[in-house]
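re: ur msg from earlier - yeah i can do the IPE complex, just paste it... oh wait u already did. ok heres what im feeding in:
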Amino acid sequence: MSRVPEDIKTVPRHIAIIMDGNGRWARERGLPRTEGHRRGADSVRRVVKACGELGVEFLTLYAFSSENWKRPKREVDALMRLLQQFLKSRTPEMMEQNVRLQAIGRLHDLPEACQAELHRSISKTAQNTGLTLILALSYGGREEIIDGVKSLLESVEKGHLDKAMIDGEVFSKHLYTRYYPDPDLLIRTSGELRLSNFLLWQMSYTEFYVTEKLWPDFEREALLEALRAFNARSRRFGGV
Ligand code: IPE
Ligand code: IPE
Ligand code: MG
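and the outut:
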């Protein structure tokens, strides 16, 4: 089932991707930005399939940030429509590929129809045992930390938690990502060297890989290239 090339010894357990460059991809072709997003959705399909085949356990895709709400309304609307269409049309494929869908972020900010479709896909795929695909939607790392702090305070106020017991592990259990391990590898497409408010707490020891490729051009071979780079890293976690 897992088709891993010989030269890739270690497959990361959790890969996180900042899927960037859809707008530039479209601009280079004189197309509207939304066309770039549409093609970006095809990259999502390819990467999900490849990660499933490689035996990756968790794949977190940054699909829409807290800050992306600042974009023109027509672009935001197009992205939300695309999300809804993607979920509707691709859930059967996720079932075939044994993919379990999850989502993180302030999901209540999404349009009702998107939320409904999202929850349908999440429950439909809940029993699948292959790749866990986590969509970060209306997601911001700082917002997540703030929500985590509020949730911690509530536990303390209700007497479920003693302040003295709070440590990194306890805090992690109050984040959206409480059920998932931290990412081993972060991939960012289109060359930007920043986190853009993605998984700030979780990425303290994640390996970063940035490619110039724009997201709609990212395919299986580009993913393998990232895995090869990951295999060449020496992860010390502060040790020797
Ligand atoms: C990433 O592509 C998709 C989202 C952020 C939703 P962009 O739309 O940011 O593309 P560029 O960065 O403008 O090229
Ligand atoms: C990051 O890309 C967010 C997503 C990929 C969803 P942006 O295009 O929004 O990031 P900046 O604005 O270049 O930092
Ligand atoms: Mg961008």
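cool cool. Residues 19-24, 64, 68, 79, 190 surround IPE (ligand 1) (CB under 6 Å). ping me if u need the other ligands too
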